[in-house]
Amino acid sequence: MYKIGEFSRRNKVSQRMLRYYDEKGLLKPKKDETNGYRYYTNEDIAIANKIKLLRKYHFSIDEIKNVMEMDATSIKGKYEQKIAELYEKTIEYYRVIEEMKTYIEPKNMIKRVNAYDVFCGVRKPFHALCLRKVVDENALELLIDQLLISVNQLNLILKSKHLAIFHSMEEGDNSRYDVEVCQPIVLEEEANDTRIKYFEETNYIYTIHIGNYDSISYAYSALYDWAHSNGYRLDGPFIEKYYTDEFITLYRDEYVTEVSIAIKKR
Question: pTM score, two decimals?
Answer without folding.
Answer: 0.58
